[in-house]
Write a structure and sequence with these properties.
The complex is a heterodimer of chains A (112) and B (115). Chain A is mainly beta and 112 residues long. Chain A is built from no helices and 12 strands. Chain A has strands at residues 2-6, 10-14, 19-21, 23-27, 32-38, 44-50, 56-58, 64-68, 73-78, 87-95, 98-102, 106-111. In chain A, the strands form 3 sheets. In chain A, strands 2, 5, 6, 10, 11 and 12 form a 6-stranded mixed β-sheet that branches. In chain B, 0% of the residues lie in helices and 50% in strands. In chain B, strands 2, 4, 5, 6, 9, 10 and 11 form a 7-stranded mixed β-sheet that branches. In chain B, strands 1-3-8-7 form a 4-stranded antiparallel β-sheet, with no helix packed on it.
């Protein structure tokens, strides 16, 4: 069994300040972990993925995530927020042949 | 452009009407999926097709049927639409079943309203 919890349903940051979107997971197996982004009225786009290689994963648009097994976390960060980062972000966990499980999403607002 | 194409983008149905949502991918992916997205609920799996010729139920299959027409196409049918099926529907595909480390490619969605 597996599950994913996004700890904040809404995060608001000022442009130019750091972004932190938190995700905790549980999995009976070695997990694959993903972050997807969804801009308004668009589909989901893969930001980055962890698949048991390096624990610090770099994605597109300056985003990073760190896999911490001891904390069962996979938080998404970006050093400096841009207006174009305003979107909804989904943390996703998968393991082997089991279906992917999506978190409920975190809406990121960026204040000018 | 390579990717997942969904049609239509928007649809309004009356209760009891039927319709088919179409999905096609041109990436030679083996597996395809239908999700629905509702506010505060994330994405929930309706049906999936691990490979051509196979389909299986996901988390919320009631009221839906699917057809994997060929490797490229995977359709979702609502036989008798209900207001509870008002949602945004996403089709996705992956090279291997459930992504297996590679993730999914998503279509742009179909916004369905049942009145």
């Amino acid at each position: 069994a597996q599950s994913v919890t996004q700890l904040d349903s809404h995060v608001s940051v000022s442009e130019g300040t750091p972004v932190l979107l938190r995700c905790n997971y549980s999995s009976s197996y070695s997990p694959s972990l993903f972050w997807y982004v969804q801009h308004p009225n668009k589909g989901l786009q893969l930001l980055l993925k962890y698949t048991s290689a390096a624990t610090l994963v770099k994605g597109i648009n300056g985003f990073e995530a760190e896999f911490k097994k001891s904390e069962t976390s996979f938080h998404l960060t970006k050093p400096s927020a841009h207006m174009s980062d305003a979107a909804e972000y989904f943390c996703v966990v998968g393991a082997g042949s089991y279906q992917l499980t999506f978190g409920k999403g975190t809406k990121l607002s960026v204040i000018p | 452009n390579a990717g997942v194409t969904q049609t239509p983008k928007f649809q309004v149905l009356k209760t009891g009407q039927s319709m088919t949502l179409q999905c096609a991918q041109d990436m030679n992916h083996n597996s395809m999926y239908w999700y629905r997205q509702d506010p505060g609920m994330g994405l929930r799996l309706i049906y999936y097709s691990a490979s051509e010729g196979t389909t299986d139920k996901g988390e919320v299959p009631n009221g839906y049927n699917v057809s994997r027409l060929n490797k490229r196409e995977f359709s979702l049918r609502l036989e008798s639409a209900a207001p509870s099926q008002t949602s945004v529907y996403f089709c996705a595909s992956s090279l291997y079943t459930f992504g297996e480390g590679y993730g999914y490619t998503f279509g742009s969605g179909t916004r369905l309203t049942v009145v």
